[in-house]
Amino acid sequence: MRIEGDIVIAKPIEEVFDFVADERNEPKYNRQMTSAEMMTPDPIGVGTKFRAMMTGRGVAVELTTEFTGSSAHIGSPSRPTCPPWTSPAGSSSNRSGRAPG
Question: Where do the structural domains in the chain lie, given as residue ranges?
Answer without folding.
Answer: 13-93
